[in-house]
Structure formats: C-alpha cells, structure tokens
Amino acid sequence: MKRPRVLVVDDEPETIKYVSANLRARGYDVLSAEDGQTALRVFEESAVDLVILDIMMPGPDGFEVCRAIRRQSDVPIIMLSARGRESDIVRALDLGADDYLTKPF
Questions:
Q1: Which of 18, 20, 26, 62 has the smallest set of CB atoms within 10 Å of its CB?
Q2: Within 10 Å of residue 92's Cβ, how many Cβ atoms?
C-alpha cells in the first residue's frame, strides 16, 4: 500500500526536522525543500499528496509557490508561517491554500 507523501517546505531546518519526524512517525513519506525553487522542482518531479508551505523563504516565497502549484494541481496546501496578519491569511487562501497555521504551533 502506498504511503501518503507530504512535501514540507521551510527555510528553517529545525522546522523541517520537527514536522518531518512527526509525519514519518504517523506513517507518511516526507520530502522536503528549504527554498521556493527547490520546492517547485521537487513538486514537479514527485507525486505529492499534501504540501506544507512556509511563506518567508528564499527564491520564490510561499505565496508564489502556492500560486505556481495551484496552476497545475489541486493538491491540498497548508500554509505554515510566523506571519499571522489577517491580510497574509486572506492572501494565502485567495491564492488557493486550503488552510493556514501560525507558528509556533
């Protein structure tokens, strides 16, 4: 049976480590990226069932990555960011994110 695959995108290695370890412990296959460009490459090269996406990162930011993914896929996207302003949340959801979690979580 195929394990669900999650792409975790964050420029903070500790966040990737923590989120990935928790997902793996619950039976998920995890891919990761530390910048927007790598995230888009990994997404295009791999079948992904869920994207957990930070906003503030090098390369295209999380908003741009969300927009690019949404142009080609309806995969669920959860934004995970330290930015909790209402305008950021609304923007992410308008771009196609399915949910928005504010750090720390």
A1: 26
A2: 24
Is the distance from CB of 79 to CB of 94 less than 8 angstroms? Answer: no
**Shortest CA distance to 19 belongs to which of 78, 73, 83?**
78
58 cis-preceded (ω within 30 degrees of 0): no
Entry pTM: 0.94
Asked if 54 contacts 38 with a C-beta cutoff of 8 angstroms, the reply is: no
Q: Is 96 left (phi over 0), alpha (psi -120 to 50) or beta?
A: left
Distance CA 64, CA 60 (A): 6
pLDDT digits (tens, 9 = 90+) for 32-79: 999 999 999 999 999 999 999 999 998 899 999 999 999 999 999 999
